[in-house]
What does this fold into?
Amino acid sequence: MSEPWDTAAPGVLALPSGRLVRGRGLRDPLGPGPLPRIGVYLARRPGAPVAWESRWVRWPDFRLPRDPAELRTALVEAWERSAAERVEVACGGGTGRTGTALACLAVLDGVPPEEAVAFVRSRYRRRAVETPGQRRFVTGFAG
It folds into this structure.
């Protein structure tokens, strides 16, 4: 098991199971502390390589992932690995796509889909999950 995220660090979301996942904006600096072991990055196209394992999912800003099955695969892996490793989820600004992905992780962790957006907004960022389409995506993620 790797050193866990600091629960007081910016962007760290504690899921009901106790798993920790860090959300952030790719335009933001990494900040102090340990690096992720794996990152799930949500962008129109893959960005610069990172020094840790990564999964890039094509997802334009303010929209939905180009391949929802690819996102599901990446998030299931991230959720499984978050039990013992530092997992990071990020998009350009760290709010819409990242918030949507974090809400989907909350669903995987047992939060009812209709409560997942509120869960993430209250524990990560107040404006996470920016569009009605993203909110519907979270609600339908369990199915």
Observations:
- The chain has a mean pLDDT of 95.
- The longest helix spans residues 68-81.
